[in-house]
Amino acid sequence: MAREILVSGASRGLGYCIASSYLKAGESVHMIVRKRTDAVDELENTYPMCHVYLGDVGSDAAIQDALSKLREKVEVFDLIYNVAGIFWEKDRKGLTYLDIDEMADMMNVNAFGALRILKGLAGQIKEQTRIVNISSESGSLTNCEERGMYSYCMSKAALNMATRQYVREHGDRRNIITVCPGWMRTDMGGAQADLDPMFSAGEIIRLAEHMDELEEGALFFKYDGRKLPW
Ligand SMILES: NC(=O)c1ccc[n+]([C@@H]2O[C@H](COP(=O)([O-])OP(=O)(O)OC[C@H]3O[C@@H](n4cnc5c(N)ncnc54)[C@H](OP(=O)(O)O)[C@@H]3O)[C@@H](O)[C@H]2O)c1
């Protein structure tokens, strides 16, 4: 029987690769996208078990409709991939040029977006549900090598803490991880990046499918399964 998989940020990049991989494998995939694209329409036309929901994880109001449709449609999710994320090139310019009020927009998507989904679908998250939050090594307090990139790095560090808090709240149950997908050739990563997003998608799916085998107590991983420090 097909499993129920949710992917946010599925219109392009890593989210699209994860969603299309599961569709090809015959699973039932629920894609949250901000807008329809030809690629999304093509998936929907090709795979009867492709379900598309319009929603923006960046605010409670903009995601409510998608969440209520998902609650009606799905009893229990097997896997949830929180992939939706944003990055601004201008974030590289340091504190002098930082618009601190505007940083809230990035926190809203990169850190709070996953929480909106986990909160809104709490009734559809059961013992078997596995959750993957897509973070970044830039959100590691120890490993981050960026300089003056406040918004993005802080938002991913906050997503990591959200993951930790979720685990603490739910009795340290091993059903959620936060994963850095590596530097990928997507709109966000650019053409010079190291990795094909389909490769990262495959590695992350492998981690999610073998979550029980990951190091006990560890939550933050690189796409290849290496544990990352907070
Ligand atoms: N690329 C990298 O090298 C890299 C490295 C480390 C971590 N990551 C993380 O990996 C994830 C995927 O990145 P990517 O490279 O695939 O990025 P991407 O190509 O820019 O795609 C981002 C996806 O997120 C969606 N999205 C953005 N804001 C959203 C919102 N408010 N609500 C719903 N969907 C939203 C976009 O939808 P629209 O089409 O509507 O904009 C798009 O589908 C992100 O969380 C990113 O931070 C990426």
Automatic annotation (TrEMBL):
<dbReference type="Pfam" id="PF00106">
    <property type="entry name" value="adh_short"/>
</dbReference>
<dbReference type="GO" id="GO:0016616">
    <property type="term" value="F:oxidoreductase activity, acting on the CH-OH group of donors, NAD or NADP as acceptor"/>
</dbReference>
<protein>
    <submittedName>
        <fullName>SDR family NAD(P)-dependent oxidoreductase</fullName>
    </submittedName>
</protein>
<dbReference type="InterPro" id="IPR036291">
    <property type="entry name" value="NAD(P)-bd_dom_sf"/>
</dbReference>
<dbReference type="InterPro" id="IPR052184">
    <property type="entry name" value="SDR_enzymes"/>
</dbReference>
<dbReference type="InterPro" id="IPR002347">
    <property type="entry name" value="SDR_fam"/>
</dbReference>
